[in-house]
Amino acid sequence: MKSVQPIQNYQLPDASGHFGRYGGIFVAETLMHALDELNQTYQRFIKDPDFLQRFDWDLQHYVGRPSPLYFAKRLTQHCGGARIFLKREDLNHTGAHKINNTVGQALLAQYLKKPRIIAETGAGQHGVASATVAARLGLECVVYMGSEDIRRQSSNVYRMKLLGAEVVPVESGSRTLKDALNEALRDWVTNVDNTFYIIGTVAGPHPYPVMVRDFQAVIGRETKQQIMEQTGALPDAIVACVGGGSNAMGIFYPFLEDEGVQLHGVEAAGEGLDSGRHAAPLCAGKVGVLHGQRTYLMEDENGQIVETHSISAGLDYPGVGPEHAWLKDQGRAQYCAITDQEALDAFHLLTRLEGIIPALESSHAVAYAKYLAQSMTAEQSIVVNLSGRGDKDIHTVAALEGIEV
Amino acid sequence: MSRIDNTFAQLREQNKSALITFVTAGDPGLDVTVPLMHALVEAGADILELGIPFSDPMADGPVIQQASERALSAGVGTADVMELVRTFREHNKTTPIVLMGYLNPIEIIGYEQFAAAAGDAGADGIIVVDLPPEEGVDLNPELRKYGIDRVFLLAPTSTPQRVSLICEQAHGFIYYVALRGVTGASNLDLAEVESRIEDIKIQSNLPVGVGFGIDGPAAAAVVARFADAVIVGSALVRIIADNQGDARTLIDKAAAFVSELSRAVKQAREGTV
Q1: What is the pLDDT confidence band of residue A3, given thresholds at 50, 70 and 90?
Q2: Nearest CA in chain B to A194
């Protein structure tokens, strides 16, 4: 493992949205003006006290923040080693960290006077979070979702419909998150005048990666304060799953300059990195350009994006946020991958030991934390970002075990 | 003088607009494309636009997405596209070929290697849909070195500042995207398009072509009155899709459609000064 590289006075991305060689804006000309407008609006409001106050108010009273930092005593005893704390994003309204970001972007949509919002979704958590804020603000909402994911996540599809959103099945390509993103971009190109596109992760063209990170950074800020209160020290390591990477960036960001804190991003190894059936671009991909950004991708020798696989729909994405690509190259964060089976085992383990059913996405982080804790001492501490709850996944898990629910 | 410049110069002398036709390379199979290209030229296409298939064509509508999917399932890679261009050039030294694609398949080859391969094969220009001028500074000099024109898209949403930025970097011609939408959409407002073309012409001496949403001879004739080129893609690719089982019929029907388009485009300015 590479040693942790300290970072001082961190100020990325630069004005054009680059994290070193990563990020940027790679979209068709039709969208350039909309992204410029969004960036200017974002830069203005992120420094505006009234906006920030409204955002904080929404996070507190609508999302239910701060989310607890919970010492997982029995999990810690079971692993034997470092103390494991869980940042309980699963307790947020709608059951995942995604709502932090949609609340922020929906406020921007209101300031930009866009009556219609669109979103892409994989596991459905971001779709639900978008439909939720749209219902609250009375905005029209269209969610693009791969037909394969619709099958895997039927309860979230029904939640979105209950909330008044239109869920559009995407039949192109691999019928998963990447194709939903393509389709949402096509919608945005067509309806750019009246539509705000709420991207759900720290990926896509600038300013999305920085904007989503900043809206999710509340996770890391709370964690810092809570762990100091509970242990009197910063954690030795933070572990978070990485699909696009928004929950990980949200908890990593406030710790980037704290060089004693190891940052671990956990990708989906699917059936194993050697099998080719995985979704781990940082661990086993190459640098390329997709969805408006330069980053690590899963691609073939012709630069075609390859189909990914993960048991968790939310990690089933062939790219990753550009800031993670940069952190990987810098050695500031380490990235590893956990297989479907390891994630499933962790899903059951946490459920039985702590009475917390984690999302399959978050189960990847729990699985890695188990290994990590065993390599550390009882005086050390790990924070796992428990990014979502697992209710949405019980059908997937049951089906794998041959049980009809 | 490049093939693209030559073509536009000749047509300008005749007071005629150019017809540019788009097909995806290797759709529905590699063996169809070169005979199809020759047939399109014979039917009246002045410039050929050749799509490089990509797995995630975000700016394309369903018709061209599916063309990409067909080509990719036929195993078409970027090297095959270059080979098609080279084969076409064996029997046609004059008709310009403009490649159209997305950045990732270019980036994986390397900018210089890609430019060299395209120039060597006999391509004349390239449109990289998802590479705005701000991000393209490394690719442009490589393309210049091998005589490949970088053709840029301008859109209804392009601000005056963006129009000048793009006019500074553009070579060959400028491709005006006639509508807010993906290729093949149908919300075309021709009066708005005409006034935007006039604005662009103030900033650039390059020919301006109009594409996205031109579905047949009627729309082509209207656009040909004021634009230097009429670009037709999805409507032609739809014929390929409908006849993919039979190469001969596919080529005949595509050529018949392009003949109609060509007639409409070439006669559009007759009787005008």
Answers
A1: low
A2: B180
Query: What pLDDT is attached to residue A4?
Result: 62
Q: Could you tell me the CA-to-CA distances from B227 to B46, B173, B271 in Å, in that order?
A: 14, 11, 17
Candidates B49, B80, B142, B149; catalytic one: B49
Provide the β-strand partners of residue A279.
A268
In whole angstroms, what is the distance from residue B135 CA to residue B157 CA? 19
| Predicted complex ipTM | 0.96
Contacts of B150 in chain A (CB under 8 A): none
For the record, the structure tokens of A174 come out as 């691999």
Residue B95 covered by a domain: yes
Mind listing the pLDDT tens digit for each residue in B215-247? Answer: 999 999 999 999 999 999 999 999 999 999 999
| pLDDT > 60? residue B150 | yes
A387 counts as catalytic: yes
Q: Are the beta carbons of A297 and B104 separated by less than 8 Å?
A: yes
The question of whether B5 is a catalytic residue gets the answer no
Residue B218: exposed, middle, or buried by beta-carbon count in 10 A (0-12, 13-18, 19+)? Answer: exposed
**Partners of A357 in beta bridges:** none
pLDDT at residue A1 is higher than 50: no
- Is residue B119 in a domain? yes
How many domains does one find in chain B? 1
Q: Min CA distance, A147 vs chain B (Å)?
A: 16
Q: Is residue B9 part of a domain?
A: no
Confidence at A5, pLDDT banded by 50, 70, 90: low
Pick the closest to residue A378 from A133, A139, A80 (CA basis).
A80
Contact A123, A313 (CB under 8 A): yes
Spell A142-180 as b/e; 16+ CB within 10 A means b: bbbbbbbbbebbeebbebbeebebebbbbebbbbbbbbb
Contact between A206 and A14 (Cβ < 8 Å): no
The boundaries of the domain holding residue B192 are 17-267
Neighbours of A232 (CB within 10 A): 7
pLDDT above 70: residue A325:
yes
Distance from CA of A185 to the nearest CA of B (A): 7
Q: Helices A322-330 and A208-216 sit at what angle, rounded to 10 degrees?
A: 80
Say how far apart CA B223 and CA B142 lie, in whole Å.
33
Enclosing H/E stretch for A386:
strand A381-386
Half-sphere exposure of B236 (CA within 13 A, CB side): 36
Residue linked to tokens 């671009």: A281
Residues A384-397: tens digit of each pLDDT: 999 999 998 998 99
Q: How far is B271 from chain A (nearest CA, A)?
A: 35
Residue B162 lies in a domain: yes
Assign residue B228 the CATH number of its domain: 3.20.20.70
With bands split at pLDDT 50, 70 and 90, how would you rate the model's confidence at A8?
confident
Q: Which of A89, A120, A183, A267 is catalytic?
A: A120
Whole-angstrom distance, CA of residue A289 vs CA of residue A295 = 6
Starting at the earlier edge strand, list the strands of the sheet with A140-146. A166-170, A140-146, A116-121, A195-198
Concatenating the DSSP letter of every residue in A224-273 gives HHHHHHHHSS--SEEEEE-SS-HHHHHHHGGGTT-TTSEEEEEEEEET-G
Find the chain A residues whose C-beta atoms sit closer than 8 A to any C-beta of B.
16, 24-34, 172-173, 178-179, 182, 185-186, 189-193, 286, 288-292, 297, 299, 301-306
- Structure tokens of A204? 């896509």
CB A133 within 8 Å of CB A231: no
Burial of B272 per CB tally in 10 Å (0-12, 13-18, 19+): exposed
- What's the CA gap between A133 and A127, in Å, rounded? 10
